[in-house]
């Protein structure tokens, strides 16, 4: 697994590299002292994993992830501040390590990385076998005490909520314990499209498409049978190019 360390402190980068020597599966391909350096290196190396500091000169770690849009690798935050933990998991971080980094906690984080890549391998196998969930499949959804048996074609929107995904169908919005990335790999790409970092839309529910800022698009979804709420989802600039290709003759 190729990784990049992003931290403005050289000593902190060196210490993390030393600790990672005990984990030969993690291959450090580059290191960056700030977000701008990191963006170029991520574009060049396409790493599987980022060890990412939060407080840095210029863009902070969260702003870096916003710039990456849909190219975000798995992320382990490394920081001296505990007040960002909740926000970190809103960005689907695998873990949040406090400095100075404890070797046992690092081992736990690496285990999470390995488990995530095992899941990804299984997903790739499913994709190779075209084992997608289609709009005709029905899935069981449980949120608290409520349960639904939902036909996927009725789900117009999947919304990332940290480590959960909120399903939008009819007037219901239950959450399931699953990442949006893992869910995306199971959904049939002919019917479901990753609009941005936080949303997957059901193409059958698209009502209107408008140009949006910075080359993006704004999609309006049809209302569910029991709701009058209008849902507008932004398609990021990078994904807008794919969307136009997908929807064109």
From TrEMBL:
This is LytR/AlgR family response regulator transcription factor. The modification 4-aspartylphosphate is found at residue 53. The lineage of its organism: Bacteria, Pseudomonadati, Bacteroidota, Cytophagia, Cytophagales. Residues 158-249 form the HTH LytTR-type domain. SUPFAM superfamilies: CheY-like. SMART domains: LytTR, REC. InterPro entries: CheY-like_superfamily (IPR011006), LytR-like (IPR046947), LytTR_DNA-bd_dom (IPR007492), Sig_transdc_resp-reg_receiver (IPR001789). Keywords: Phosphoprotein. Residues 2-114 form the Response regulatory domain. Gene3D superfamilies: 3.40.50.2300, LytTr DNA-binding domain (2.40.50.1020).
